Every structure is written in structure tokens, then in C-alpha cells.
Amino acid sequence: MNTLLSESASPQPGSGGNVSPGQALTIRGGRPLTGRVEVKGAKNLATKAMVAALLGGTESVLRDVPDISDVHVVRSLLEVHGVTVEDDGEGVLRLDPSGAVSAHFEEIDAHAGASRIPILFCGPLLHLLGQAFIPDLGGCRIGDRPIDFHLDALRAFGATVEKLPSGIRLSAPAEGLTGADIELPYPSVGATEQVLLTAVRAKGTTELRNAAIEPEIMDLIAVLQKMGAIISYEPNRVIFIEGVDSLRGYDHRCIFDRNEAASWACAALATDGDIFVGGAKQQEMLTFLNVFRKAGGDFDIAEDGIRFRRGGPLKPVVVETDVHPGFMTDWQQPLIVALTQAEGTSIVHETVYENRLGFTRALVQMGADIVVHPEGIASADRRVPRRELEQAAVINGPTPLHGADVVVPDLRGGYSYVIAALTAEGTSTVRNVDIIRRGYEKFLDKLTDVGADFDVVG
Ligand code: EPU
């Protein structure tokens, strides 16, 4: 049973905290990863587009959907709500919302799993059924991850929010939700999606200021436009949504997963390998590619993907994570593994989440020289801080890594542990690797494809 959801900050264990060990890998490291991997649709679009299907009067078709556990969670939640989901086994989902019904608290709670996506069901369910229930939210334990922006936005549309011991119940007024004037305190990805998924069917116009503009958000806007929505945006993070009475289903191919692409790029950099990431595209990765090059990486852009490798010795960099078009928070963990092999001092400022550097403890256990400054540090290369919240990791390299026994704390941290183990000399055991399946499709097959030497235990 999940615990009560808190609207404001509800402290959660930090990375590397109490995780129950699941499947483990025994990894023999010290050899370059070389080969080709394919990336499919982005986790952070596919799951949202699946929720959008609830808003359509007809069937939706979503293509290039990755076979990952976050997608399975959203699929079960849709099915609990009466949506029929058919999977052709090759990444094409057909979602028919014509039988949508309200679900019991217990059922939703049982299917919500370790995902934050259930919060995005609110708007569509309020339009469809007049009410919604949200259990406690999972997702990676990388900070407080509150939902206050979401609930404030839903209230602005006219929803009533009621806190219950089992979660949060929302209801729409009898006349339905109405368009709102909303300014987000921070360009939150999830809260922007919440507003989009709610405003498209609300009466009247919604103006959203300080919106997130990540490529996955733009792809969700494309999905909604295919469904009949009217959405326009200005370059200054302002989005206008004109509500419409009804929407139809869509046929859409997901934008590629740039987080997975960046992860494999860092694996090539860390292990002195050479990896071609099929499906990766330059435009959505411009910021990553600049940092990759400055750190000593080299890449070739091809029609069907990007080839990543070292261009010489690795060099230290100073990076700060930020909202798009900044350097994504999801990219810093695998990059830090590579920076342990760079000659000199690198600094990574994490400004999006307050607890996303805890994973470095295991890298230190493997021989890395990394000091985390929990309050952040002043640095000549640092721009004006966007938020109070920030920490910094100072990485001194190069340090040879050696094998260790480590437990995966979260999705991106987990991937990074596997790459660190593959970079290290000797044998490592990486436990609880199941979490990696939340966001990396066919992870073990892909490791094999690039020549990783490992055994699955348990
Ligand atoms: N925030 C609030 N209140 C809210 C919502 C967010 O204070 O109501 C804060 C968060 O605590 C955080 C910051 O705003 O400090 C940014 O959070 P955001 O809402 O942008 O993140 P999210 O929507 O929860 C998505 C991705 C994350 C990715 C971030 C940033 C999904 C399912 N998750 O999270 O992906 O890191 O945007 O780009 O789309 C991952 O893939 O491993 C992952 C964690």
C-alpha cells in the first residue's frame, strides 16, 4: 500500500538508500564497448501520449513505443480505466478509449507502480468522468518531487482537490473545467503536460506562462494537435490553448529517446569505445553534443543515427543542468562516469533536483575522486542560479576504477553504475538492475550487442 501523497515537499530516501535488491549483474569490466544500439521512442513522451489517448473519441495509434516498465504501468492504468490497449509486439500500440470508466481506488493504487505518470490522468479523467483519484506517486527517488504545481493548476481550471488517507480525489464542477491563466513557479515538465492535457478540453482559452519547452513537450503538443486541439506558443515560454468540445484519436510516431542516446554516448566515452546509436538525432541533442565534444568526445551525424567515440584524451568540463535548452539533468549521471577518466577537475552543478548526486557514492567506492557539495559551490563558469536548490559534484580525474558491489538507486544512476562497472578493471556486482528496465528497452540485449562481458544473477 502506498503512503499518503503530500502536496508540498515530502522527503524521500536519497539515492543509494533503502532499495530491495532484485536481479543483479556480475560485470567484468575494462574493455571498450563497441557496436550498434537502436533507440526507440522517448519514455518521457510515449507515456504522456498514451494518457492523451483518453481524451480522444476514437482509437489512437502510437508508434515506436519502447518496451519498458513505465509504459507497462501506464498501460495497466489505462486498462483499469476501461481503455482497450493492443500491442503488436513491435512497438505499435492501439488505444481505444470508448469504454473508459472510473476505477476503484484500490485498483489504481495497485497498478500505479513506481511511476509518476498517474498524476497526468487527472485532466483527462476530470473531463471524461468528472472525477479522478491519484494515489501516492513513485518515480525515481531523486528529490522531494512534490506535485503542488499540478494541483494548483488543476484548481485554476476549477477542480476541487480533496486529500484522503489513500491519496487525492479530484472533482470537476457540474459545468465542467474552464480555461485558466497560469504561471508556473518553475518550467516543470510534468506541470506543463498537466496543463496541456487539461486545457485542450476546458471551456475557453488557457494561457500558460513559464512553461517547459522540452522536445518531448513539443511532441505532445503535436499529438494533441493531431487530435483536434488548438495550441500555439511564443518563444518566451508562453503557451496558449484554445479549448475545444471534442477530440479524436491520433496516429503518431514518438520522438526518439534522447536520454537513452546520451547514455550510450557516455558509455562509449567512459570505456573508450565506439557506439553507433541508431535513431538518435542531432537537433534535440545539440546541448549534449557540445559538452560531449568539450569533454574530448567525437561524433559523426548520420541519416539514421549518431556514432560516438573519443576524439583524444578526455578533458574536464564545467556543466550545469537546466531545463531545455540547457543540459538535461538526466544526462549528468552517465557523463560523470566518463569524467572520472578526464585529466583535471570537472564540476557538475545539479539545479533541477535536490538529490541527484547521491549515486556518486558508489563511484567513489569504485575508486573515483568525487566530492559532492550539498549546497552547491560558487564557480566562475556558473551562470546566475535559477533556483535556491542546487548541489555540485567536483570530479578529479583521471582515477582508475576498480570492481565493487553496488546497489542501483534510481534509473539514470543505475545505468551509470553498469557503465562504471564496465569501465572498471576487475569484477563488479550491480544489484537491483530491474529499475533500469523502467527506461531502457532491451537493456541486457543492448549490452551484449556492444560487447559487454556480464552474467545475470537471480
Ligand atoms: N516541481 C515542484 N512541484 C511540482 C512539480 C515539479 O516543485 O508540482 C519541481 C521538482 O521537484 C523538480 C523540478 O520541479 O525539482 C522539475 O520537475 P519536473 O516537473 O520538470 O519533472 P518531472 O515532470 O517530474 C520529468 C521527467 C524526468 C526528468 C524531468 C526534467 C517524466 C516521467 N519524467 O520529470 O525524467 O528528469 O522531467 O526534465 O517525464 C528520468 O527519465 O529518469 C526522469 C527522472
| Name of the CATH class of the largest domain | Alpha Beta
The biggest beta sheet is recorded as: 4 strands, mixed
Low-confidence stretches: 1-20
Secondary-structure content class: alpha+beta
Task: Using the CA coordinates, give the radius of gyration.
Answer: 22 Å
Helical percentage: 25-40%
The shape, in one word, is globular
- Domain module tally: 2
Mean pLDDT: 90
Question: DSSP helix count?
Answer: 13
Strand proportion, as a percent range, falls in 15-25%
CATH topology of the largest domain: UDP-n-acetylglucosamine1-carboxyvinyl-transferase, Chain
What bound compounds does this protein have?
uridine-diphosphate-2(N-acetylglucosaminyl) butyric acid
Enumerate the strands of the largest sheet in spatial order, edge to edge or round the barrel: 21-22-1-23
> Quick one: how many beta strands?
23
CATH homologous superfamily of the largest domain - what is it? Enolpyruvate transferase domain
* CATH-defined architecture of the largest domain: Alpha-beta prism
Structure write-up:
This protein is an alpha+beta fold. Helices cover 28% and strands 24% of the residues. The protein contains 13 helices and 23 strands. The strands form 6 sheets. A 4-stranded mixed β-sheet has the order 21-22-1-23, with helices on one face. The chain has a 4-stranded mixed β-sheet with strand order 2-14-16-15, with helices on one face. A 4-stranded mixed β-sheet has the order 4-5-3-13, covered by helices on one side. Strand 7 (160-164) and strand 8 (167-171) form a beta hairpin. The protein is globular and about 65 Å long. The chain starts with 23 loop residues before the first strand and ends with a strand. The relative contact order is 0.17. The model is unreliable at 1-20 (pLDDT under 50). Uridine-diphosphate-2(N-acetylglucosaminyl) butyric acid binds at residues 43-44, 116, 140, 143-150, 186, 188-191, 212, 259, 328-330, 352-353, 411-412, 439. The modification 2-(S-cysteinyl)pyruvic acid O-phosphothioketal is found at residue 140. It is found in: Cytoplasm.
